[in-house]
Amino acid sequence: MNWFNRDIITIENFSREELEHLFNIADKYMNIKFKDSLKGKIIANLFLEPSTRTRVSFEVAAKRLGAEVVNVTGEYASIKKGESLYDTLKMLDSYCDLIIIRSPIEGSAQFAADICEHPVINAGDGTLNHPTQAMIDLYTIKNTFNRLDKLNIGVYGDLKYGRAVVSFILAISKYDNKIYAISPEQLKIRNEIKDELLNKGVKIEEFTNLEHVISELDVLYVTRLQKERFVDLAEYERVRGSYKLDLKSLEKSKPNMIVMHPLPRVEELTYELDSTSKQAYFRQAKFGIPLRMAILSLIFGVEV
Amino acid sequence: MKVTKIKNGTVIDHIPAGKALSVLSLLELTGKEGYTIALVMNVKSRKLGIKDVVKVENLEINPNLLNRLALIAPEATINIIRDYKVYEKRKIALQDVVENILKCNNPTCISRQYNEPIISSFRVISKKPLKLKCNYCMRYLNESEVIEQIVERSKF
Asked: Which residue of A has its CA nearest to B115?
């Protein structure tokens, strides 16, 4: 098990044992407000795409451990003037002890890890990966069901462009679960991901209608229509509103089923669900702090 | 039609019919290098039915470049000629990773960003039919897309 100085690029690189270890550490951070174990460390938060939860929770997690955080956003970085990502990363690598990167360009995080000496954490690269979100998602399920296997997991919505949901599928498929991929025809899982899952022998079935499977699910992971990934906005308008979760659509669900969502939500998840016992998305967002504290402390090799 | 023997150089035989121009493109031969090049297309072949043949005089083509041919002409045979005789038969083999030859079809892949110092890199998922996977964005490149790219480049 080796977390020390490690890059976090894709959830696929992590074994169940390594994730289990992470979750044990996250448990310990659940009620810790402040420690100064990362005092003297400076973390770069390079965000070239909008973010609320991921950027803020990484910053809060770092600060709760005593580290300093430098925020570099797309709007104000020299990338806006035409500077390459390569040069930007070279600078940050020479100034900081760890780089967290979010970018609309697929493969950016791997590229960053290839050229930086310090560890790199992928906070989302285009439609590809969002590994720390997937870790939070698993942690939320474990925290709810006290297990990560033998569950019927529904993923619902934009399965084509959503990096969080794709990373979640890759993560939950490390365990023995049945996956129901529910989406409009135009937003089905991309072939390269489906092949990856089928090659691993993952039990996954595709559906277009949630109503047909809702009664079987233990978890329903909803995802936003990723407007920013559509090359053709007319195509976006065609699928907009093609799926939505409200109280009525959950009528036939199991009593202890939970609804997850990596957030932000737009119109696919109605506010009326917030006050129900099935709502798990705010808990999921909250777990971002202890989980990311655990990630940072493991990478820097400090004790809880 | 008779094409004379070459004294020294490389003969690439058993190229699938119609692919000779793409072979030259893959070998980075534009005609401007000054080598005498014979290119014969649609010749009868026992092995392939019809085939193309390329002969390049006074150049023993680098084995690393030859391996690229496996992308479009996996059954091609390579003979290195010295003094009119076959001095060496070289085999071509598709490597597990194909770098800096093809471009990813995904415009938002890091390997496609013009201002980044990065080369394209693909893992070979399947040799027959040819299927590659981008090492950066994980998108597939299938055989017809590979051929399309190479043909596009060979339009000189």
From this structure: A84
Rounded CA-CA distance B58/B72 in Å is 24
CATH, domain range A11-129+286-300: 3.40.50.1370
> Quick one: which of A170, A150, A148 has its CA closest to A159?
A170
- Superfamily name and number for A131-282: Aspartate/ornithine carbamoyltransferase (3.40.50.1370)
- Tens of pLDDT, residue by residue over A28-58, are 999 898 999 999 999 999 999 989 999 999 9
ipTM of the complex: 0.90
Q: CB-based contact (8 Å) between B39 and chain A?
A: no
Question: Residues of A with CB below 8 A from B142's CB?
Answer: none
- How far B154 CA sits from the closest chain A CA (Å)? 29
User: Which pairing describes strands A42-47 and A98-103: parallel, antiparallel, or unpaired?
Assistant: parallel
B137 band by pLDDT with thresholds 50, 70 and 90: very high
Q: Does B118 touch chain A (CB under 8 A)?
A: yes
Nearest CA in chain B to A193: B138
Question: How high is the pLDDT of residue A81?
Answer: 82
User: What's the token pair of residue A298?
Assistant: 């493991």
**What pTM did the predictor assign?**
0.89
